Request: fold
Amino acid sequence: MEKLIYLLWGDGGAESGDAIRSRLLGETTSRLLDMNVRALGINVHDAEAALAPSPAPPPEGELPHVAEVSVWVDCYERRDGVEAALSELGLRFAGYLVVESIYDDYGTTAHAEPRDWEDGARSPGVLTVALIHRPEGLGYAEWIRRWHGTQSPVSGELQPRTRYVRNEVVRPLTEHAPEIHGIVEEGWPSIGHVADPMLFFNASSPEELNANVSRMVESVNACLDLGRLRSSTMSEYLVKSLR
Reply:
């Protein structure tokens, strides 16, 4: 079984995001479930998610990624139906074969209870979906050591995450897909936790905030190309869970 992630780009507006969400959770979901995909997750930058600012928005003139569709299939080569369903949305999209690591899930940290909502319902809080890149000149093995061995635990200590999913990109699946090395999904308890730096960095004073931010920046700089980092806030829908 393999996990495929499809990213979609759009104008980033709340109204258009709501329209994309309606289509993804309606006709697109219906088509994908009819294909008997093993599991399905949909994240989308809709009006509710847009209330929280993106931690790393794209520069002016560059469209943001506004949705992420994750499908689990038996074999990545049999994905034509998936891409046909996504193409009906009329948005630019790109697909990637990934290796998933669920570092933290609902109920494994102090910031969220175990999942108790049904498939298809909106997850509590808000998600950030970041597109990351290995810094030029940094070897693969060292990049993984820093990302997995240092950045993951440091960010878990300094931030109130409810869920943390690392997706290492194995290779692109669609023509002209932009180069991306990792896709990171992080859940937060509320919109306010993303909008307020004090909450976002678990700080109780300006001094603690400065210290936590400095430590985070040092850790991130060691494993990511910050100039290429892109992040969007999204609502999460776990449409069909793995059984």
